[in-house]
């Protein structure tokens, strides 16, 4: 197992903009290598235990981390919602310090980025952001692993995200800007990405030389290689009184075969769970253009790359 120089300073994995291009490319390369040669990494976490904090329900994140840690020879402990929201039952700092007494790393899927920052500040072990309200770096890393398996030169890829400006699109466009990938974000009015993330991405795009396009006009999608979408209804809002209003507002932004043809796109991605016939049609989700299950599998390999990098210094 080779040790990549670019990853030697990786202490936590909290947000996409904390890594530079060489570090991200190294993680992508490492993820693909682990996927192709899992036996070579089967003892990286031997004797190590990882505490997994989950404030929010999960399928792919929980399973991919749990089984991925096992494939690296480690032990994962799931800490679910029975402990309540971080900071309520006990301080985040106390939570971090206590877990650091027992665990060798902390994975956290939480409501607030403040919780992630608090854990990282007070823990004496590495912290991995498995989702918060601002970022979803593990998802974005897996997405670019998936893209690199089809497009060896990521700088030639044109990627469009269609839908709600959220934590997934935040991480996706930040990582795209760092890697030099042309990125288009198309969202309904009032559902754009948050301003500070946009400004940060613009600066990163200027540095890398890629093109960043932000628009409310679905007809301005232009030529794309890949179209990405996510649910229009945030987790916990499924029964909201505003659901019908949101669905009506987002209806023109559905990703379907017509939109794929209009953009000349040859791949569709979705981080799941998918609300079929809302943000994406069943026909497209189940088609050969869809790489959603390859994308889901790559969550495990991408996260394992992060864990290997953290424990291979």
TrEMBL record:
Matches recorded under InterPro entries: Asp/Orn_carbamoyltranf_P-bd, Asp/Orn_carbamoylTrfase, Asp/Orn_carbamoylTrfase_sf, Asp_carbamoyltransf_Asp/Orn-bd, Orn/put_carbamltrans
Give every Aspartate/ornithine carbamoyltransferase Asp/Orn-binding domain span: 156-309
Q: Offer an example of a GO molecular function term for this protein.
A: ornithine carbamoyltransferase activity
Q: What class of enzyme is it?
A: transferase
Which keywords appear in this protein's UniProt record, sorted alphabetically?
Transferase
Instruction: Report which reactions are catalysed by this protein.
Output: carbamoyl phosphate + L-ornithine = L-citrulline + phosphate + H(+)
**Every Aspartate/ornithine carbamoyltransferase carbamoyl-P binding domain range:** 12-149
Give the enzyme's EC designation: 2.1.3.3
Q: Which SUPFAM superfamilies match?
A: Aspartate/ornithine carbamoyltransferase (SSF53671)
Q: Which GO terms describe its biological process?
A: citrulline biosynthetic process; L-arginine biosynthetic process via ornithine
List, alphabetically, the Pfam families matched. Answer: OTCace, OTCace_N
Asked whether the UniProt record includes Transferase among its keywords, one would answer: yes
Family statement: Belongs to the aspartate/ornithine carbamoyltransferase superfamily. OTCase family.
This protein's name:
Ornithine carbamoyltransferase
């Amino acid at each position: 197992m080779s040790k990549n120089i670019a990853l030697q300073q990786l202490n936590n994995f909290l947000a996409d903009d904390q890594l530079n291009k060489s570090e991200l490319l190294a993680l992508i390369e490492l993820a693909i290598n682990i996927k192709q040669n899992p036996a070579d990494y089967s003892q990286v976490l031997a004797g190590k235990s990882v505490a997994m904090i989950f404030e929010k329900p999960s399928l792919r994140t929980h399973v991919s981390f749990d089984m991925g840690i096992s494939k690296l020879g480690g032990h994962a402990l799931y800490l679910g919602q029975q402990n309540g929201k971080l900071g309520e039952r006990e301080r985040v700092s106390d939570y971090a310090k206590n877990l650091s007494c027992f665990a060798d790393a902390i994975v956290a899927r939480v409501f607030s980025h403040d919780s992630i920052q608090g854990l990282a500040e007070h823990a004496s072990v590495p912290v991995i952001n498995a989702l918060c309200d601002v970022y979803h770096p593990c998802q974005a890393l897996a997405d670019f692993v998936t893209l690199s398996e089809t497009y060896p030169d990521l700088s030639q890829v044109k990627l469009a995200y269609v839908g709600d400006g959220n934590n997934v699109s935040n991480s996706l466009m930040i990582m795209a800007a760092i890697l030099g990938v042309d990125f288009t974000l198309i969202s309904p009015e009032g559902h754009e990405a948050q301003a500070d993330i946009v400004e940060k991405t613009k600066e990163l795009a200027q540095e890398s030389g890629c093109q960043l396009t932000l628009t409310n006009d679905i007809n301005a999608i232009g030529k794309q290689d890949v179209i990405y979408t996510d649910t229009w209804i945030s987790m916990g809002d499924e029964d909201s009184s505003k659901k019908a209003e949101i669905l009506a507002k987002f209806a023109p932004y559905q990703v379907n075969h017509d939109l794929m043809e209009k953009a000349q796109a040859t791949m569709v991605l979705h981080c799941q769970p998918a609300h079929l016939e809302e943000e994406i049609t069943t026909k497209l989700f189940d088609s050969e253009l869809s790489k959603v299950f390859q994308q889901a599998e790559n969550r495990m390999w991408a996260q394992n790359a992060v864990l290997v990098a953290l424990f291979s210094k």
